[in-house]
């Protein structure tokens, strides 16, 4: 007897391994997946520009990274003594324009460098509801607490989103012909706009993502939205705000991701990194006990063996910790 409607497990023809460089951009769900990969020592860079929700802004920032293009001083604006840029998250905001430009320059340069070697790009679409500046009709990535009267709020059309994403994918493929792109729709519910509007927004994003898979090669749709909304479909898989999926939901999604994109050999390596991570976070009752010393020695040996097989793995903090107790 089936007690839930599951999303059928798929197996991608493209595998992700420790030799790959993985760039994740988009909504806060990119951080969830990015942290999971990072904690398991994959080569990953997630949301270098901060959280970005809509496809037009994501495309614009990818274009900046591809060209290593920095904004001019005239693009930095001020509100209540805080300087900001409408295309970037408030993480880059500052109390003077020079610092904003420096913050942006550092992030763009970092993204540009990583993008040159990226083999796998994950784009998480959060919403198709956007705010446009009334003075130039430009879509903003972040409103930066500027009064609502400064914007027009509306839905992006499917045509607008497909056009924007198609332009940047074409440019990316010219520079990185072997790039694999994964599209997913964030399962986080944007109920600030209302449940009906949230569903309208998500349905457009899902359609756009599937259009992209049909229009281009080496583009994959990953069903994170469907896993939470249709397979789990229960408030026990949400945080107390009833908006964000919780740790149990994240586990379901990352398990599905692992079964979709990781080979059995890579899964085995992931399990080894998880054991090291668990040992690193464990705090013994007696740090000077001989048993703990033996455990730390064993972990260092495991790290050494993993780094022989995967030289790019960064275990610096773990090695420093375990070495203290030998």
Which tags fit this structure?
alpha/beta, 326 residues, 13% strand, 2 domains, Rossmann fold, globular, 10 helices
Structure notes:
The chain has 326 residues and is α/β, with parallel strands linked by helices. It has two domains: 21-262, SGNH hydrolase (Rossmann fold, 3-Layer(aba) Sandwich), CATH 3.40.50; 264-326, no CATH class. The chain is 47% helix and 13% strand. It is built from ten helices and nine strands. The chain has helices at 29-39, 55-67, 97-115, 158-175, 195-215, 224-232, 247-261, 264-281, 290-309, 316-323; strands spanning 21-26, 43-46, 77-79, 82-84, 120-125, 129-133, 151-155, 180-185, 219-222. Strands 2-1-5-8-9 form a five-stranded parallel sheet, with helices on both faces. The chain is globular. The termini are far apart.
How are the elements arranged and paired?
Layout lengths: L20 E6 L2 H11 L3 E4 L8 H13 L9 E3 L2 E3 L12 H19 L4 E6 L3 E5 L17 E5 L2 H18 L4 E6 L9 H21 L3 E4 L1 H9 L14 H15 L2 H18 L8 H20 L6 H8 L3
Parallel strand pairs: 1-2, 1-5, 5-8, 8-9
Antiparallel strand pairs: 3-4, 6-7
Q: Indicate the CATH topology of the largest domain.
A: Rossmann fold
Task: Pick out the low-confidence regions.
Answer: none
Order of helices and strands: EHEHEEHEEEHEHEHHHHH
Total helices: the number is 10
Please tell me the CATH architecture of the largest domain by its name.
3-Layer(aba) Sandwich
Overall structural class, as computed from helix and strand content, comes to alpha/beta
Q: How many beta-strand elements?
A: 9
What's the CATH class of the largest domain, please?
A: Alpha Beta
Strand order of the largest sheet: 2-1-5-8-9
Separation of the first and last Cα atoms: 54 Å
């Amino acid at each position: 007897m089936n007690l839930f409607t599951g999303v059928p497990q798929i197996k991608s023809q493209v595998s992700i391994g420790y030799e790959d460089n993985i760039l994740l951009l988009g909504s806060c769900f990119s951080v969830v997946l990015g942290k999971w990969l990072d904690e398991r020592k994959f080569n990953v860079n997630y949301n270098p520009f901060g959280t970005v929700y809509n496809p037009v802004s994501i495309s614009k920032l990818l274009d900046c990274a591809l060209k290593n293009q920095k904004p001019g001083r005239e693009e930095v604006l001020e509100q209540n003594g805080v300087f900001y840029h409408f295309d970037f998250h408030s993480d880059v905001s500052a109390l003077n324009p020079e610092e904003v430009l420096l913050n942006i320059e550092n992030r763009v340069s970092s993204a540009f460098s990583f993008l040159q070697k990226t083999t796998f790009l994950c784009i998480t679409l959060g919403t198709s509801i956007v705010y446009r500046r009334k003075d130039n009709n430009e879509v903003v990535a972040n409103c930066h607490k500027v009064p609502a009267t400064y914007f027009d709020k509306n839905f992006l059309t499917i045509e607008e989103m497909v056009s924007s994403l198609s332009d940047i994918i074409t440019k990316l493929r010219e520079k990185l012909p072997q790039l694999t792109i994964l599209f997913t729709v964030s399962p986080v519910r944007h109920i600030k706009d209302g449940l009906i509007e949230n569903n309208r927004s998500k349905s457009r994003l899902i359609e756009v993502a599937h259009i992209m898979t049909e229009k281009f090669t080496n583009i994959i749709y990953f069903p994170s939205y469907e896993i939470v909304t249709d397979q789990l479909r229960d408030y026990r898989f949400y945080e107390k705000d009833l908006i964000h999926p919780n740790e149990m939901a994240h586990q379901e999604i990352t398990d599905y991701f692992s079964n979709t994109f990781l080979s059995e050999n890579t899964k085995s390596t992931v399990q080894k990194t998880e054991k090291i991570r668990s040992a690193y976070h464990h705090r013994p009752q007696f740090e000077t006990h001989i048993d703990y010393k033996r455990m730390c020695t064993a972990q260092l040996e495991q790290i050494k063996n993993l780094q022989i097989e995967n030289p790019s793995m960064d275990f610096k903090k773990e090695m420093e910790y375990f070495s203290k107790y030998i």
